[in-house]
Specification:
Length: 483
């Protein structure tokens, strides 16, 4: 712990861990579940490291009791998980049959969490779109159809869960669905202009259309919750956005300094500005012109003011170097380079297993402050924060379980968050570590581990808590004020 720190977190601070359906559940053909775009994407050779799939993953569909026992063991007060849309509506659409078994599975899980004293936070969509909707009408590219189907799915879920759930997250990281799914092509459905990767896609346009669809669908679901359920069930609803901190590559160069705000605008304000300010950021309008969809009065009315809380996923920081010249039509970053070293050759943080992730805890405090200033101090729930470890997968078990690097990451990041709360007036009220357990790390398969719990994929998905699972509760104990 920062020895001299006098920072605290409020007595009612909610902390726990996060996961996502496709990353942990397995049981992809069970109890009537329909395929998602991730089932389909994983079948394409070369898309996932080691040819992995989520077919079995952590087998959490069959191990809900083990997962709840783990949460209790760690002392977690909350658990954020996502629903598999295609378990609940296998074909996904508003006129398609509802699968009662899928719905009941999750309702039972939520009841069991409550019985264990754990507060559920539910994400409606963590990237696993029902595959049929992609095939039927182009999925997220088709705003009218997608919004109507997502709104219907959300209503079915709100109705079924009622007052059992008080914290709803519509979408996890729309940036990833848009950019990785429709520009880079690294995530399902893998569309991109790069014809070596995909026969279809237009990187210069589709990601912006998809981001727009996701925003409108978020707004539509929020309106339904507020109009039809909020008074009855007493919950709140928001969206979760990913974004890293940005420091200039050369602090002496005004172009690099300016590019830092632009980087965050392209990553975060793309979604947060319409929600909090009712428009896209000027920097994006300027660079993208008519490739950025225009707001109709109806759509922006749904989106503007649609967050009861700001869901923040945060992992790391980068150094930003402005590019000179005209932006590439496929650029999504804001005409800048995203680097891990600055002009002096200093690294942003130590190496991990993830090429993009180098810890830099002070960046967390700075981004919390940046968001608070730009969006008028919203209530913030940190819905993900965590790290992989360089070479963790290759360590002998006893060493792997001593994940001091991850434990230190949590000490530093939770400390930075407490400083943001205490010293900067940031209204942060919850924190979910990513992740409760090692799981299917998307395109990186199972080679990269993010869990506080080791999952033994070779031996029946056995779970063994790592050091970080045991330490994180102690860290929170030192910061959270006694009621
Ligand atoms: C989270 O995204 C996800 O919500 C979660 O499902 C996932 O398991 C977890 O991260 C760990 O990865 O390849 O250089 O273009 C975190 C945000 C944004 C991090 C995209 C990786 C890729 C950058 N992610 N980023 S790059």
């Amino acid at each position: 712990m920062g020895s001299a720190s006098t920072s605290t977190l409020p007595a009612d601070f909610l902390w726990g861990f996060a996961t996502a359906s496709y990353q942990i559940e397995g049981a992809v053909n069970e109890d009537g579940r329909g395929p998602s775009i991730w089932d389909t994407f994983c079948k394409i050779p070369g898309k996932i490291a080691g040819g992995a799939t989520g077919d079995v993953a952590c087998d959490s569909y069959h191990r809900t009791h083990e997962d709840i026992a783990l949460l209790k063991e760690c002392g977690a007060k909350a658990y954020r998980f996502s629903l598999s849309w295609s378990r609940i509506i296998p074909l996904g659409g508003r006129n398609d049959p509802i699968n009662e078994k899928g719905l009941q599975h999750y309702i039972k899980f939520v009841d069991d969490l409550h019985a264990a004293g754990i507060t559920p936070l539910i994400t409606l969509f963590h990237w696993d779109l029902p595959d049929e909707l992609d095939k039927r009408y182009g999925g997220l590219l088709n705003k009218e159809e997608f919004v109507a189907d997502f709104a219907h799915y959300a209503r079915v879920v709100f109705e079924a869960f009622g007052s059992r759930v008080k914290h709803w997250i519509t979408f996890n990281e729309p940036w990833c669905s848009s950019v990785l799914g429709y520009n880079v092509g690294q995530f399902a459905p893998g569309r991109t202009s790069d014809r070596a990767k995909s026969p279809v896609g237009d990187s210069s346009r589709e990601c912006w259309i998809v981001g727009h669809s996701l925003l409108v669908a978020h707004g539509a679901a929020v309106k339904i919750y507020r109009d039809e359920f909020k008074a009855r069930d007493g919950g709140e609803i928001g969206i979760t956005l990913n974004g890293d901190w940005a420091d200039p590559w050369d602090p002496e160069n005004p172009a690099d300094v300016e590019a830092c705000d632009r980087k965050i605008e392209f990553a975060i304000s793309w979604f947060a500005d319409p929600i909090y300010h009712g428009k896209y950021p000027d920097s994006m309008v300027k660079q993208l012109g008519d490739r950025l969809p225009k707001w109709t009065p109806e759509d922006i009315a749904l989106v503007h003011g649609s967050n009861d809380f700001y869901g923040m996923n945060h992992y790391c920081a980068n150094f930003i170097k402005a590019k000179s010249g005209e932006p590439d039509p496929n650029d999504t970053a804001g005409n800048l380079e995203i680097l891990l070293q600055n002009k002096k050759g200093e690294w942003v943080g130590p190496e991990t297993q993830s090429a993009w992730l180098r810890p830099c805890a002070i960046g967390f405090r700075k981004l919390l402050k940046w968001l608070s200033e730009r969006y008028n101090y919203p209530k913030i729930y940190v819905t993900e924060n965590g790290t992989s470890l360089k070479g963790e997968n290759d360590l002998p078990l006893e060493q792997l379980l001593q994940d001091e690097f991850r434990t230190q990451y949590f000490r530093d990041y939770i400390g930075a968050m407490a400083d943001a709360y205490t010293l900067d007036g940031v209204n942060v009220r919850a924190y979910m570590g990513w992740s409760l357990m090692d799981n299917f790390e998307w395109a990186e398969g199972y080679e990269t581990r993010f869990g506080v719990t080791f999952v033994d994929y070779e031996n029946g998905q056995k779970r063994i808590p790592k050091q970080s699972a045991k330490e994180i509760g102690k860290i929170f104990d030192q910061y959270i004020e006694k009621a």
